[in-house]
Amino acid sequence: MVNSIPYSIDASAREAIPTSKVLVVGAGGIGCEILKNLSLSGFRDIEIIDLDTIDVSNLNRQFLFRKEHVGKPKAVVARESILVHNPDVKIKAYHDSVLSSDYGVNFFKKFNIVLNALDNRTARNHVNRMCLAADVPLIESGTSGYSGQVELIKKGATQCYECLPKPPQKSFPGCTIRNTPSEPVHCIVWAKHLFNQLFGEDDPDQDVSPDTEDPEAKLDGQNSVTESGNIKRVSTKQWAQDIQYDAEKLFNKFFNDDIKYLLSMENLWKKRTPPKPLSWEQAVKVVGAKDENDETSVRAVDMEVWSISKCTKVFAESISQLRNDLEGKTFLVWDKDDKPAMDFVTACANVRANIFSIQQKSRFQIKSIAGNIIPAIATANAMIAGLVVLYAFRILAEKVQQCPSIYLRQKSVHSKFVLAADRQLTKANPNCYVCSAKPFVNVFVNVNKMTVKEFETELLKKHLNMVAPDVVLDAKGVMVISSEEGETEANNDKVLSDLGIVDGSILKCDDFLQNYELTVAINQYEAVEKDDPFFKVVANPDELKAKESNTKENGVSDHKEPESEDDDLLVLDDIVEDPQEGSSSKKRKLNTDSDDDIVEVPL
Ligand SMILES: Nc1ncnc2c1ncn2[C@@H]1O[C@H](COP(=O)(O)OP(=O)(O)OP(=O)(O)O)[C@@H](O)[C@H]1O
Ligand SMILES: [Zn+2]
Fold first, then answer.
1. Which member of 32, 175, 187, 311 is catalytic?
2. Top mutation candidate among 23, 51, 115, 342 for ligand 1, by most atoms within 8 Å of CB
3. Does residue 216 share a domain with residue 107?
4. Could you say which of 44, 117, 456, 470 would form a disulfide bridge with 30 (CB–CB 3.0 to 4.6 Å)?
């Protein structure tokens, strides 16, 4: 068993390993591998935090978990499985979110290294801030299919996770989703929005009713589609509750009445196939040849495209289940692994696809699109986790310079190398609004329209990743937002200008948990076009200067961030051949024009 530390590990790391304390955040695909590696290489003091329970879909790659563990907390089972193999490890498990205020800066200070094995930006941003505040090195990692990345984040030595703006997540224009879907994914996004409208958290951006403001829908010489036709729904959820979630009424509303209304927006259908409204009565009759098949087989349920009649059945069943699940709660959170939630989306997406003459999909295909699933590859997770622990050795051996960012790519015809590393540590962005000495951002908002609550939720929490901000108007010392419950609630519905926040105001925004203080300069901005954002955040003063040559009337530039569908990784372009060096030397071209910045890592 593992009481000795492998000799292949650097001598100074070998010395440090037994007394080092390590935190692993996330016990999923990479986290399980990291835990196994830590235990096998002699680490004796490990803590692990994960908020989730084990799903059957985790078992093909998260090897610390077995069938009998399904439904149990990941962190707890991961600990038990490690102890079975190596009882000498002291390992503490937390079944909890790392965002909880129980894990403050002092919690993070206990560790020599923190290893991230997460799957979302919110948690990554938060751990980034906590490690900067506690001054503990963080090894950040992620995989996406066959690609992966490991990056060291160390205060004063490297860039932080938030130094560069991340590309926005791919989204579709609202009118495509609400009025003119043309691909299966549009129907799937709409179905997820419908789930949220009926059972989830209220989000006005996820309206599912016909969009009467669609510029394309406006008739020649007419400014707006008649108000009387505009479908007034004070709250879809409230209405659904009032009709006791009657499946037939809901179906007729969304798939018959709303579609008829869309048809009345004639301009939309001049060059498109018009949708065909579908009533419940018609839908139940659209039976498919496969409906008689064994409905309990996984193949029938998951891999086959359901008939419309089957969709109506599943629609009704899932609604009744979700209605029960909602009891006693304010809202449900959509989860691809929650059966009724996934069934509901499959049924709705397919009915809508049928109405718009779009190809229907199986539950399995819809799950992969709806969950943005890029297949998780066990070997990619294993390689990345190996590198994470290798970097942990180097950090303990105080060889930080030997931990440049390293990238895993799928082996291709162009190169036999699957790993490439930056030549050196990536320096911090001096304008980073997280890790620079005096974090500062310019914020462009309409002070006469944005409420204090929106400022807190949309801007400070969702965009700037604060957890519990306190905000003071600098010049006047007015408390705008307090993290103490009840202290500033009276401000919530006021617009910013009501509190004296105007163009040029400076706000001090403080997050006690993250030990983070941000200065926010307010710039008055009015959205002109329909698609103009509600607000903008500009951290880099160069972006402000650049916009002057390209300034719109409203004073905001057309700054565009690079596009990528990938949530977890930097954009890695294809491996390219270096024309200077011939075919024997092929280099990986990253997000840089200079091939000199990276080196191949032979295996
Ligand atoms: N805020 C958080 N606090 C603690 N753990 C988190 C937090 N956010 C995400 N995690 C955990 O990070 C892990 C990421 O692992 P992974 O990417 O393999 O995801 P998964 O949920 O196991 O698999 P999949 O998403 O592919 O079904 C998950 O176990 C998840 O519960
Ligand atoms: Zn930074």
1. 175
2. 51
3. no
4. 117
Task: Show the tokens assigned to 459.
Answer: 């801007």
Cβ-based burial of 573 (10 A; exposed 0-12, middle 13-18, buried ≥19): exposed
37 annotated ligand-binding residue: no
Contact 74 CB / ligand 1 (< 6 Å): yes
Are 239 and 276 found together in one domain? yes
- CATH number for the domain that contains residue 490: 3.10.290.20
Average pLDDT over the chain, rounded to whole?
Answer: 85
CB-facing half-sphere around the CA of 324: CA atoms within 13 A: 6
Do 234 and 293 lie in a common domain?
A: yes
The answer on 217 and 160 residing in a single domain is no
Q: Is 131 among the catalytic positions?
A: no
pLDDT in tens, 508-561: 999 999 999 999 999 999 988 766 788 999 887 676 654 443 333 332 223 333
442 is in an annotated binding site: no
Measured by CA distance, the residue closest to atom 17 of ligand 1 is 119
Distance (angstroms) between ligand 1 centre and the Cα of 397 equals 30
Contact indicator for 405, 150 with CB cutoff of 8 Å: yes
Cβ of residue 148 lying under 6 Å from some atom of ligand 1: no
* Ligand 1 pocket check for 50: Cβ under 6 Å: yes
Give the strand pairing for 138-144 and 147-153: antiparallel
Residue located via tokens 């496969």: 290
Q: What is the C-alpha to C-alpha distance for residues 148 and 569, in angstroms, rounded to an integer?
A: 7
Closest CA to ligand 1's atom 1: 97
Give me the torsion for CA of 475, 476, 482, 486, rounded to 10°.
-170
Measured from the Cα of 381, ligand 1's closest atom is: 18
Looking at the structure, tell me whether residues 140 and 16 fall in a common domain.
yes
160 labeled binding residue: yes
Q: Are residues 90 and 123 in the same domain?
A: yes
Range of the domain at 304: 179-370
Tokens of 470: 């306190």
User: Is the predicted pLDDT of residue 603 greater than 70, yes or no?
Assistant: no
> How many beta carbons lie within 10 A of that of residue 214, not counting itself?
21
Question: Which atom of ligand 1 is least distant from the CA of 99?
Answer: 1
Shared domain check, 471 and 322: no
Residue 155 lies in a domain: yes
Residue type, 142: G
Q: Quick check: helix, strand or coil at residue 545?
A: helix
Residue 470 in marked binding region: no
Pocket test for ligand 1, best of 24, 33, 49, 52 (most atoms within 8 A of CB): 52
Gyration radius from the chain CA atoms: 27
Q: What is the mean predicted confidence (pLDDT) over 258-287?
A: 92
Residue 24 β-bridge partners: 48, 115
Cα(540)–Cα(181) distance, integer angstroms: 37
Q: Model ipTM? A: 0.98
**Kind of pairing, strands 113-116 and 21-25?**
parallel
- pLDDT tens track for 105-139: 999 999 999 999 999 888 999 999 999 999 999 99
Q: Please work out whether the CB of residue 479 comes within 6 Å of at least one atom of ligand 1.
A: no
Question: Which among 521, 538, 555 is the end of a domain?
Answer: 538
Would residue 69 count as lying in a domain? Answer: yes
